[in-house]
Write a structure and sequence with these properties.
The complex is a heterotrimer of chains A (594), B (148) and C (187). By secondary structure, chain A is an alpha+beta fold. Chain A has four domains: 205 residues, Four Helix Bundle (Hemerythrin (Met), subunit A) (Up-down Bundle), CATH 1.20.120.1730; 102 residues, Beta-Lactamase; 70 residues; 161 residues, Heat Shock Protein 90, CATH 3.30.565. Chain A is rod-shaped and about 220 Å long. Chain B is built from five helices and six strands. Chain B is globular and about 35 Å long. With 187 residues, chain C is mainly α. Among the domains of chain C are: 61 residues, no CATH class; 64 residues, Arc Repressor Mutant, subunit A (Orthogonal Bundle). In chain C, strands 1-2 form a two-stranded antiparallel sheet. The N and C termini of chain C lie close together (11 Å). In chain C, helix 3 crosses helix 5, helix 3 packs across helix 6 and helix 7 crosses helix 8. The chains are: A alpha+beta (594), B alpha/beta (148), C mainly alpha (187). Chains in contact: A-B, A-C, B-C. At the B-C interface, helix 4, helix 5 and strand 6 of B face helix 3, helix 6 and helix 9 of C.
């Protein structure tokens, strides 16, 4: 997980946290407000309820008083007067309670005053009635009057109380109205906010989960990478080190220690400790190079020797460079490889190369000198022989003449062989210049060289357009000379030799002779209508000195085609042949198109 | 060629080759005066001597001690007095590069030493004859190139 | 700066002879190519002086009758080879006609003096011209073979190779490389 991603996640989470906290505070605030409102509301309800209840009680007490009075009037039993006597206090208390309860409302207070009047009136008439009835003789009419007035007062009380109760109800409703809106949207708001918070929490959860998964994966990958790198160090035979540019401290990997032949982390990593292992002759060299570590951003590779704890000398190569890690710190990291095998192998190869080169030079010189210097005495032999034949042939006996002739033909054969060998040894690649050459002109030159034989045999040579290639011009010319020369030499008697040279571009895959790959070649075919050869011997004809005819039938040394093969190989090409006895032969030359 | 002699010089360190050479000219009908030298130093000393009769044709072997044929060739070509001499390189080598090199360096003729005496005679006769034609017909010696 | 030259030998030699003779002061008349006559007697020393002067130019005073004839034959051959007009008749016939003598006679004298046959000399001249054309012009071998009256390019190549021992193209290449070499050494 990249550092940027990590940072973004952190910011994101911080934001979510702040938003969530804000939301929670918001909700808390709203809830608090709601609850307060609710409390107030219920308080009002309770109060109204209490008022109503108290008013009911008031009426009830009055009724009790009335009932008591009525009962007494009916029965003259004093026990019925208990509620009446008790009621006074109760009514007064109740009235006080209601007054207290409604002290906030002026309307109600006014109503109360009004009520009091009527209550008093009622109580008054109750007591008046009572007093009256306590007399021996009373006027029933006055009693009725009192009762009627008393009833009307009671009615007024009742009405007043009902009035008060409905007023109280209105009051309550008004108060409730104020808080209704609050009541109404508060839950909605809370639900909404709750929902939003839920969503936010879900998002954070998902994000954090994802981050955690990523982090876990990264840690896994890192662990694996770390393990792999440790393993790589062991397998690859190298160790790694770090030099922290801020703290100037070294850190060696486990394998760095193992390379030195000691246990991992067996000493505190430092340059001084490391130098203890360096070969005394190389110490200054290593110091000079290591100077670059704190200062330069690239430490180029340098090779030096160390002596392991067990005394074995190994070759180490160290290199490094500075990297800037996520936190901005700059660290110089590097590797130390054990290149002992490589150094020895190189030395070995160099030695072998030198050996081979000198061998090669010797062989080439030998080949050349042998062929060249052999020619001298041979030429003398032939020349003196020819002198002998010219001057003294007739002086020789019959057998002597035969012998001389045989010597001559052997000598001649030897000369041709040496000439061909010389040519073969010259067909090498080293020190030859590859240049762009028009194969058509090379073919022309070849034809010119063979003009005489071509005329003699009245041969027809047809050719299609040949390309211009980077070749050793003289060798390709020789190739043509040898092949066309062969075609002419092995032409059929009484048949006009026709030699066709064609060229085309092909891909290796599509060709019968070439290996299966996608390389492209120019395919040049030289075919004739001569005596051909048995396809069975096709492999033999390119072998040095191998011939299909004995020297009496056709002259030749068996080197010509070997030279052709060598020339073609010098050009990274191939040559193959196909022949049909008595019909003709075709040679296929492949030269790469690069 | 009337009564004039054609002057021929040969520089070759090989005794047998010198013998073949002089014998061949002896048997040819052409009127020639042949001088031979054993190495390049002898040859150059002779050529640089003001009193010497310069040859019409000079045959140079390539492989000679002290001073080889190529060195002689270059020296001769640098010397204006010796410009009129037709130079024939007379050698055993058949390397194309060698042969071309001698022409490029100024040789007129290249002869690969033959292995048959009669062939030698024929070659020498042809060289001398053609050279004579160049000499008597005012042909451009710069274009005189022959390879036998 | 390189300058290429082409020589018109007849004109060249004529001018030299004219100049030299005029210098000498004796009356003369030029009859033909390689031939002139003194209109008054000339002392031997003056003649020798003239001969020496001519020698500086490579001009030889020919004394021998046979040599004179041979020179004439050579002149005819050179003219014949160099002319661009193809011959209708065999060269032998042409020469015989031109010089008004039998070809057999001409042949024998030519061989005696030059040690080579007329046919061979013709070939030498032709090849010589071919060499010049190869070096100094852009003509290819086909064109050259046509101009020199060869039946085919192969014929030219064969003769060229027989005469010089190398193919025309090899010749061309060597001359070019030689020029390069001398240029390098001179610069």
């Amino acid at each position: 997980m990249k550092d940027v991603q990590l940072r973004n996640s952190t910011i994101f989470l911080k934001i979510i946290f702040v938003i969530s906290a804000a939301v929670i505070f918001f909700i808390a605030g709203i809830t608090f407000k709601h609850i307060t409102v609710l409390k107030k509301s219920s308080k009002w309800v309770e109060q109204s309820h209490n008022v109503n209840m108290e008013l009911e009680r008031l009426i009830s007490y009055l009724k009790d008083a009335e009932t008591g009075q009525r009962g007494y009037i009916l029965t003259n039993d004093k026990s019925f007067l208990t509620p009446y006597t008790e009621s006074k206090t109760l009514i007064r208390d109740s009235y006080k309670k209601v007054s207290a309860l409604t002290e906030n409302s002026r309307t109600q207070q006014a109503n109360l005053k009004n009520l009091l009047f009527y209550i008093n009136k009622r109580q008054n008439y109750l007591s008046k009635t009572l007093y009256l009835t306590q007399q021996e003789n009373y006027d029933k009419k006055i009693l009725n009057n009192y009762l009627i007035i008393g009833k009307s007062a009671m009615d007024s009380v009742r009405t007043k109380i009902e009035n008060m109760m409905s007023t109280q109800q209105n009051l309550l409703q008004n108060r409730q109205e104020d808080y209704k809106s609050t009541m109404n949207y508060t839950p909605l708001l809370i639900y909404l906010t709750l929902l939003v918070t839920l969503v936010l929490i879900t998002i954070s959860f998902i994000k954090m989960n994802r981050d955690l998964v990523k982090l876990r994966k990264t840690i896994n990958t890192l662990s694996v990478a770390n393990e792999a790198s440790n393993l790589a160090e062991v397998v690859g035979g190298f160790g790694s080190w770090q030099y922290n540019l801020e703290t100037n401290e070294y850190n060696f990997s486990d394998n760095e220690y193992r390379l030195l032949g000691v246990k991992p982390q067996s000493f505190k990593p430092s340059l001084e400790e490391f130098l203890k292992f360096v070969h005394p002759d190389d110490i200054q060299y290593v110091i000079d190079n290591a100077k670059n570590i704190p200062t330069n951003s690239i430490l180029p590779p340098f090779t030096y020797r160390i002596i392991r704890k067990d005394g074995e000398i190994r070759y180490f190569r160290t290199l490094g460079r500075v990297v800037t890690i996520a936190s901005g710190e700059r660290t110089h990291i590097g590797t130390t490889s054990d290149v002992t095998e490589e150094v020895y192998a190189n030395k070995f190869i160099e030695d072998r190369n030198r050996e081979l080169e000198s061998n090669n030079k010797e062989l080439t010189a030998f080949n050349y000198i042998a062929s060249h210097d052999l020619q001298e005495p041979l030429r003398k032999i032939e020349t003196f022989l020819s002198r002998l034949v010219t001057k003294d042939y007739s002086n020789l006996s019959k057998s002597g003449q035969q012998y001389v002739t045989s010597i001559q033909s052997s000598a001649q054969r030897m000369r041709i062989l040496i000439e061909d060998l010389l040519q073969f040894s010259r067909t090498n690649k080293t020190e030859k210049v590859f240049e762009d050459a028009d194969l058509n002109s090379l073919l022309e030159n070849a034809k010119q060289e063979l003009t005489q034989i071509i005329e003699e045999k009245q041969a027809i040579i047809e050719s299609s357009e040949l390309p211009t290639l980077k070749v050793i011009p003289f060798q390709i010319q020789q190739l043509f000379i040898n092949l066309i020369g062969n075609s002419l030499k092995y032409s059929k008697e009484n048949r006009t030799p026709i030699i066709k040279i064609t060229c085309s571009k092909i891909v290796a895959n599509d060709d019968e002779f070439l290996p299966n790959n996608n390389m492209k070649y120019h395919k040049i075919i030289v075919e004739d209508n001569g005596i051909g050869f048995d396809q069975e011997y096709v492999k033999k004809i390119f072998i040095l000195f191998s011939r299909l005819h004995n020297k009496n039938e056709y002259e030749g040394t068996g080197i010509g085609l070997a030279i052709c093969k060598k020339i073609v190989e010098n050009h990274q090409g191939f040559i193959f042949a196909k022949g049909v006895l008595n019909q003709g032969a075709a040679f296929f030359i492949y030269l790469p198109i690069d | 060629m009337t009564t004039e002699y054609i002057n021929i010089c040969l520089a070759d360190d090989d005794q047998d080759d010198r013998l073949f050479f002089t014998d061949a000219f002896d048997e040819l009908k052409i009127k020639t005066k042949v001088s031979t030298f054993n190495d390049g130093v002898e040859l150059m000393n002779y050529l640089n001597d003001a009193d010497s009769v310069l040859p019409n044709v000079l045959f140079l072997d390539l492989n000679m001690p002290k001073k080889n044929g190529l060195e002689c060739l270059l020296e001769i070509k640098k010397n204006e007095n010796l410009n009129d001499i037709a130079i024939a390189i007379y050698s055993t080598s058949s390397s194309e590069e060698h042969i071309e090199e001698t022409f490029i360096n100024g040789a007129n003729i290249y002869i690969k030493k033959p292995s048959d005496f009669e062939t030698l005679k024929k070659i020498l006769a042809e060289v001398v004859t053609i050279n004579w034609q160049y000499h008597t017909s005012g042909l451009n010696k710069d274009n005189f190139l022959m390879r036998m | 700066m390189k300058v290429h030259l082409k020589y018109n030998y007849p004109q060249l030699t004529k001018k030299i002879i004219q100049d030299k003779l005029s210098e000498l002061g004796y009356k003369f008349k030029i009859i033909g190519f390689g031939e002139f006559v003194f209109l008054e007697k000339i002392p031997t020393e003056k003649m020798m002086e003239l001969t020496e002067q001519f020698q500086e130019y490579g001009i030889e005073v020919v004394e021998n009758q046979k040599s004179v004839l041979v020179q004439k034959i050579k002149d005819v051959i050179v003219e014949m080879v160099n002319s661009e007009i193809p011959l209708n008749v065999k060269s032998s016939v042409h020469i015989a006609e031109k010089l008004n003598l039998s070809y057999v006679h001409l042949s024998s004298i030519f061989s005696e003096v030059t040690y080579t046959s007329i046919e061979n000399y013709i070939i030498i001249q032709k090849i010589e011209l071919a060499k010049q054309l190869i070096i100094n012009t852009d003509m290819n071998l086909t064109e050259i073979s046509i101009q020199l009256n060869y039946s085919s390019v192969a014929h030219l190549s064969t003769q060229f190779k027989n005469n010089t021992g190398m193919t025309p193209s090899a010749f061309q290449r060597i001359i070019a490389k030689r020029k390069e070499f001398t240029n390098k050494n001179n610069s």
